[in-house]
Design goal:
The protein has helices at residues 17-27, 67-83, 112-123, 152-162, 179-189, 231-242, 261-266, 283-288, 299-311, and strands spanning 8-12, 34-38, 44-48, 56-60, 88-93, 127-131, 146-149, 170-173, 192-200, 206-212, 219-227, 247-255, 272-276, 293-296. With 320 residues, it is an alpha/beta fold. It folds into two domains: 8-150 and 299-319, 3-Layer(aba) Sandwich (Rossmann fold); 152-296, 3-Layer(aba) Sandwich (Rossmann fold), CATH 3.40.50.2020. A hairpin with a 5-residue loop joins β2 and β3 (44-48). The longest helix is centred in the first third of the chain and has 17 residues, at 67-83. It binds ribose-5-phosphate (R5P).
């Protein structure tokens, strides 16, 4: 066990204070005091209400709606922490939404994932702690150290605890890009593996072409990095059903649930749709989904990672 004599302080932006509070409860420390206000000209101002001098500071902020405000608030908090003489500042971004923008796949667009990485570093962050980046290579946009957590342990444990005969089921990746993640989960569950050949036709529509693998008569566990409009999910569930799946369970890391997502999920033939609390899922969305949305907590994982970073211990042991 290493030690760090600097105070460990955890603060939160406004996007997910419940998760930040839960992380602090796990760490056995109070959530740091700060406030964010909006001037009449729409500018944000953030202020820490306690000393950060020579402290090891962690700032929790998911990039959830309103995304641009969430990012700006985090940048201001990092900058203010550095100005207040924090010894080290770690940006804790449980949901890094711009990880979906990782390449120039159309003419005259920005690689926004890289731009946001540049902004976090320019603000003065010394490290980033994040979870399940849509494109893991976004990690490489940072020159500062990045600890990239996976919710796999939490999702696997959930399936093991709730599904009878979990090993006889099949983990289904809703597109080829998710195979690596799905394969890791299927190894952990000692279950089968299948994937869908999916093409995205627009931001809100996808076209699932074929299911590769055998799901006939099986329990199917669809896993994904996130659900936004649930377009990918609808296609995946329908294909699983057409291919004879007995029951379908869904578990993703980030439950963003935008636009038609909750209506689509309500009408979907699935047992449940779980996401972790990297993004706040309001009760109104749970109701709109007909009670199908469930939330799993990743606070213990983040708390352990923060503790290990603070004391200089390995973070990779958390994946075992
Ligand atoms: C796509 O490649 C991702 O893994 C998710 O499947 C996608 O981001 C979910 O978006 P939507 O719910 O809008 O289909």
């Amino acid at each position: 066990m290493h030690t760090n004599t600097r105070p460990l302080l955890v603060f939160s932006g406004q996007s997910n204070q419940a998760l930040a509070q839960e992380i602090c409860d796990q760490l056995g420390i109070p959530l740091g005091k700060s406030e964010t206000q909006r001037f009449t000209n729409d500018n944000l101002v953030v202020r820490f209400k306690e000393s950060l001098r020579e402290a090891d500071v962690f700032i929790v902020q998911s990039f959830s709606t309103p995304v641009s405000d969430s990012i700006m608030e985090l940048l201001l908090m990092i900058d203010a922490a550095k100005s207040a003489s924090a010894a080290r500042v770690t940006a804790v971004v449980p949901y890094f939404s711009y990880a979906r923008s990782d390449k120039k796949d159309e003419p005259r667009i920005s690689i926004a994932g890289r731009l946001v990485a540049d902004l976090i570093q320019a603000a003065g962050a010394d490290r980033l702690l994040t979870m399940t980046l849509h494109s893991p290579q976004v990690h490489g946009f940072f020159k500062i150290p990045v600890d990239h957590l996976s919710a796999e342990v939490v999702l696997a444990k959930h399936f093991e605890q709730t599904v009878d005969g979990v090993h006889d089921g099949v983990v289904l990746a809703p597109d080829a890009g998710d195979i690596k993640r799905a394969s890791a989960l299927s190894r952990r569950l000692d279950s089968g593996l299948a994937f869908i050949d999916k093409r995205r036709t627009s931001d809100t529509t996808v076209n699932a072409r074929a299911l590769i693998g055998d799901v006939q008569g099986k329990k199917v566990y669809i896993v994904d990095d996130e659900i936004s409009t649930a377009g990918s999910l609808v296609e995946a569930v329908n294909l699983a059903r057409e291919n004879g799946a007995a029951e379908v369970y869904v578990a993703v890391t980030h439950g963003v649930y935008t636009g038609p997502a909750t209506d689509r999920i309500r009408d979907l033939d699935v047992v449940e749709v779980c996401s972790t609390n990297t993004v706040v899922v309001p009760e109104s969305k749970v109701e709109a989904s007909g009670g199908k949305l469930k939330t799993l907590t990743v606070a213990p994982l983040f708390a352990k990672a923060i503790r290990h970073i603070h004391t200089g211990e390995s973070v990779s042991t958390l994946f075992e």
